[in-house]
């Protein structure tokens, strides 16, 4: 009797944990989809930002990676608010 009861409790816990895992897996899929959409929009957002700023030419000594790092956060904020 006690063994059956313990087994039933364990089965219930396993079922619950599987349901939780399914929920978390779906949440991760959705996060990946959102991230992929944002990444696809970065060039579009950067182009719009350049037009807004009057397309100022960067200094020759500024590396391109530094420019991307400076624009990416604003571009992502813009995408998230859209």
Give a written overview of the molecule.
The chain is an all-alpha fold. The protein has helices at residues 2-52, 64-81. The protein has one domain. 84% of the residues lie in helices and 0% in strands. Helix 1 crosses helix 2. The model has no long low-confidence stretch (mean pLDDT 80).
Quick synopsis:
The protein starts with a helix and ends with a helix.
List descriptors.
2 helices; mainly alpha; 82 residues
Spatial extent as radius of gyration: 24 Å
The unreliable regions are: none
Query: How many strands in all?
Result: 0
Number of helices: 2
Q: Termini separation (Å)? A: 59 Å
The shape, in one word, is: rod-shaped
Return the structural class.
Answer: mainly alpha
Structural domains: how many: 1
Order of helices and strands: HH
* Mean residue pLDDT: 80
Report the major sheet.
none
Tell me the helix content. over 70%
Fraction in beta strands: under 5%
């Amino acid at each position: 009797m006690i063994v059956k009861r313990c087994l039933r409790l364990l089965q219930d816990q396993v079922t619950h944990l599987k349901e939780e895992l399914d929920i978390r897996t779906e949440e991760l899929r959705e996060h990946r989809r959102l991230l992929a959409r944002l990444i696809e929009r970065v060039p579009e957002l950067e182009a719009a930002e350049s037009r807004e700023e009057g397309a100022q030419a960067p200094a020759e000594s500024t590396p391109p990676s530094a420019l991307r790092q400076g624009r990416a956060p604003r571009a992502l904020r813009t995408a998230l608010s859209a």
